[in-house]
Amino acid sequence: MQYLRDNPDRVLELTEQHVRLVASSILIAMLIGIPIGILVTRVRWLETPVIGAFGMLYTVPSLALFVILLRYTGIGQTTVIVALVLYSLLAIVRNTIAGLDSVPPAMIDAAQGMGMTGLQRLFWVELPLALPVILAGVRLATVAAVGIATIGAVIGAGGLGRLIFDGMRSLDTDRIIAGALVASLLALAADWGLAALGNLLRRDVGVLSKG
Amino acid sequence: MIRLEHVSKVFTSRGQVVKAVDDVSLEVGAGELVVLIGPSGSGKTTTMRMINRLEVPTSGRIIVDGRDVQEMDVVALRRRIGYVIQQGGLFPHFTVADNVAVVPRLLGWPRAKRRQRAYELLELVGLPPDQFADRYPRQLSGGQQQRVGVARALAADPPIVLMDEPFGAVDPITRKQLQRELRRIQSEVRKTIVFVTHDIGEAFLLADRIVLMSEGRVVQDATPADLLRRPADAFVTEFIGEDRGLRALQYTRLEELAGPAPAGQSPNGVVLPGALSVLEAAREVGKFENATGDGFWVSDDAGRPVGYLTYLQFVALLGETIAPEDTSGKEPAHAVSA
């Protein structure tokens, strides 16, 4: 606790770095993963290879993935962001598929019968109704990314991992605890915040809460 | 308006070939309400869904407004055909007004016009717009959701409306109410309506013509009165119900019996809605012990008096309805007009 009290500016700065790492990774993963998920629900045979590939990626230990990526993306944030994106894709793609699959057939039928084009159906009906489930995937990915991002400090990406690894080098337990504590709090906050947003959407959409 | 020419639809599921619709030909005239009815698996829903191309016929042609639907732009075709599905099929994330205005929005109407149209239609289906426009579907009862579903189908004023068991999922009392409402709305807007149901009572209450289907084929295509009096075969008789006399009382509408309103007389005394079944009318008449006059007025769905029956005529027609053969050869009490 001492370290936190003595270096609030440093902790804040690293927290900000950490948040930026995670947020940009998740954003990129959404931009890639949601369209892939949509594609899979249109071209069904893709499901097994796509989920299989992302599933396999997910099992690669993070330190190993960082090292492998180092060769292509070098020391620093880029490598960490690429790795976090790759890890996040599984949850986001899988939940996008599940969300779109959960749209009641009657909704699709009504949308089609009223003369919506494929894109109108997607943006007006399917995606809004799938949103709570997609968001649950984003939440899962975000919480995991907050943890994995700490390891990014090893390859110079900054973030709260810096406190942990600096603490290990200088045998400063207090610093390690400070880093771990703030990272955990960050993960909890992300989890809670995204859950709250999901509940809000769910209530608004009303799909999953009722019929 | 709508013409099906030798339409068939074959599904293949797990190697098995199922003939869902088998050489169906039928016509629906402008402003006509035709009910497709039959047991489940009779092909009635598939037949309807081929009209707005939610299903593609395996063979045969469907002509809407003189044009083969297969040659029309599917999106444009659907936007000029209203569509009501079971349980309303409302979009849960749209307000009631936005649900009603979906097709106008697809057609690119300006916002203010869409809003105005949604209000008009909510009014038409009996939901005060000030109270309902900004609610979400989940805040509505099943019956109210169905009304919104009907309003949504009528929003862009399509000449044709397809209704797929629209009142199947509500309780009997609400269903009866919705059926009456639909009759009133239809008397105001006069759409060409294809209505799918498996409820024979509903068919008799709503239909100008009933098309009874079984195993993908049309068994009989007739007016309600003809279906009652001249069932094509044993299947029709069984489907209507064994006790034909009682069914006839339940299903013949008062408006089918009433003579023309006498000229120059203003309606006073007893007025009964023409949508009542003869049986219901008989019960109602019994309640007016102290009524003066020799008969009662019959009103249309908008409440306008359109016909008159003396009690004597009514009794005679009751008998004729239960057992039409008994009066054969005799002159009817008066000319029967629709």
Low-confidence stretches of chain B: 326-330
Compute the gyration radius of chain B: what is it? 21 Å
Please provide the count of β strands of chain A.
0
Main β-sheet, spatial strand arrangement of chain B: 6-7-8-3-9-10
3D shape of chain A: elongated
Q: What are the segments of chain A in which pLDDT stays under 50 over at least 5 consecutive residues?
A: 206-211
How would you describe this protein?
By secondary structure, chain A is mainly α. Chain A has 9 helices and no strands. In chain A, helix 3 runs antiparallel to helix 5 (77-101) and helix 7 packs antiparallel against helix 9 (173-205). The longest helix of chain A is centred in the N-terminal third of the chain and has 35 residues, at 8-42. Chain A is elongated, with a radius of gyration of 20 Å. Chain B is of the alpha/beta class and 338 residues long. Chain B is built from 15 helices and 14 strands. Chain B has helices spanning 44-51, 74-79, 96-100, 102-106, 111-124, 129-132, 142-154, 172-189, 200-206, 224-229, 234-240, 244-251, 254-257, 278-286, 311-322; strands at 2-13, 16-28, 33-37, 59-64, 67-68, 81-84, 160-164, 192-197, 209-214, 217-222, 259-260, 271-273, 295-299, 305-310. In chain B, strands 6-7-8-3-9-10 form a 6-stranded mixed beta sheet, sandwiched between helices. In chain B, strands 2-1-4-5 form a 4-stranded antiparallel beta sheet, covered by helices on one side. The chains are: A mainly alpha (211), B alpha/beta (338). Chain A binds chain B through residues 106-107, 109-117, 120, 124-125, 128-129, 204-207, 210-211, and chain B through 52, 54, 74-79, 83, 85-87, 89-93, 102-103, 106, 136-138, 152, 162.
